[in-house]
Design goal:
Elements: E1 3-8, E2 14-15, E3 31-35, H1 37-43, E4 81-83, E5 92-97, H2 107-120, E6 125-129, H3 133-145, E7 148-154, H4 159-167, E8 171-175, H5 179-193, E9 196-197, H6 206-210, H7 212-220, E10 228-232, H8 237-251, E11 261-267, H9 272-279, H10 305-314, E12 318-322, H11 324-338, H12 344-358, E13 367-372
Parallel strand pairs: 5-13, 6-7, 6-9, 7-8, 10-11, 10-13, 11-12
Antiparallel strand pairs: 1-2, 1-3, 4-5
């Protein structure tokens, strides 16, 4: 393992990687795992990947977890990158389809790495607030690891997600409120109950799993990054994790300095990052009166807001808000044209693409990647007549 320490993303304070950590002890902001890239680069050549397993653990030297420790894995990662020839003719459009992960969403990536490290560092009871797919992923990986899982979900979470967590053996608590209320309940009880909190960006290793999105994308494009990435953004770990991967790959001399323009796509009924970006703010105020069928986008306040906003501006990207009705219509359009039953969050990105093309913010012929973060099968409640 080449992780050397944890570093606060805000104040820069260093923390010990070898014990369980949540937020920075000084300023309560997210921590990043810092990899000794010079040493990792000497041990690893990108040409080796072709012979390795088709999972995110093919990048083992760039991930936490001691080399002699078996990861908690269900075969996550290695998802297809598909050309979307029928949906768009004027751009070079690709879909990174994360619905083929275990538990049918990109959340499996983060939980595989985070649960592996939590177990390695001595945790026995894990807790997470979730509006859907993160809860299912924690339940699955905790079961695989032989650990207790405690999942707190809004009462209106899609039934498929609630059932999934329960059938995977998690202790499920339904809360009248939003994911922020679920997180607050965990915060009140975790010390008394002996839980280690696994919330988005409130521990340092879920993002290490998510950064493999960036490594895979680069590898699948022969180490040439695309022009534009459209990403559905709730807590933001996918967006932030990819940016971390791009920086690491540049340091490894695997990619050049060129970066994709990153676009955050949110629901009109819950768009704190959109509002903050358009107002020129460095952080995002909590969004009120939240409503959207895309449960993964129902995050009124993200602890990584300042990181997302910085990335969007540094990349010369932007933001798009999409109505629920447009998401549902787009699910059907993508399904009928590309044969994929995508999640509403992914569908929001296809609607955003049309909006950005109409506004002239994406040029003809540019290579664009849309991330479909989960399977539409989890959202059947959205399609009730």
């Amino acid at each position: 393992m080449f992780v050397t320490y944890l570093e606060c993303t805000s104040c820069g304070l260093r923390h010990d990687w070898s014990r369980l950590q949540n937020l920075c002890g000084a300023c309560q902001k997210p921590l990043f795992a810092i990899v000794d890239l010079a040493a990792a680069g000497r041990a690893l050549r990108r040409e080796k990947f072709a012979a390795r397993e088709k999972s995110l653990w093919r990048y083992r030297e760039l991930l936490p977890l001691a080399a002699e420790v078996e990861p908690v894995s269900l075969g996550e990662g290695g998802t297809p990158l598909l050309r979307a020839k029928n949906f768009a003719e004027d751009v070079d459009l690709w879909i990174k389809d994360e619905s083929l992960n275990p538990t049918q969403s990109f959340k499996a990536r983060g939980m595989s790495v985070a649960v592996s490290m939590a177990k390695y560092l001595g945790a026995s009871k894990l807790a997470v607030p979730s509006a859907g797919n993160a809860g299912g992923a924690l339940a699955a990986y905790a079961a695989r690891a032989g650990l207790e899982a405690h999942v707190f979900m809004p009462r209106d979470t899609p039934r498929a997600n609630i059932i999934e967590c329960r059938e995977l053996g998690a202790h499920v608590t339904l809360i009248d409120g939003l994911i922020t209320d679920c997180g607050a309940e965990i915060g009140r009880r975790k010390e008394r109950e002996g839980w280690f909190e696994m919330s988005t960006l409130k521990e340092p290793y879920r993002i290490e799993g998510k950064k493999t999105l960036g490594y895979e994308l680069a590898e699948q494009f022969a180490w040439q990054l695309p022009d534009v990435i459209l990403y559905p953004t709730g807590g933001g770990t996918g967006l932030i994790g990819m940016w971390k991967a791009f920086d690491e790959m540049e340091a490894l001399d695997w990619v050049d300095k060129k970066r994709p323009r990153m676009f955050s796509v949110q629901a009109s009924g819950c768009a704190p990052i959109v509002r903050a970006f358009e107002s020129g703010e460095k952080t995002a105020a909590e969004f009120s009166n939240v409503h959207t069928c895309a449960s993964g986008l129902r995050v009124p306040k993200a602890i990584g807001d300042f990181l997302m906003l910085k990335i969007l501006r540094e990349s010369n990207g932007g933001v798009v808000a999409v109505d629920d009705d447009d998401m549902i219509r787009m699910v059907r359009e993508v399904g009928s044209k590309e044969g994929l039953f995508i999640a509403p969050e992914g569908a929001a990105c296809f609607a955003a693409l049309k909006s950005l093309r109409a506004a002239g913010k994406i040029d003809i012929g540019e290579r664009v990647v849309i991330f479909n973060t989960g399977s539409g099968i989890k959202y059947l409640d959205c399609y009730e007549p």
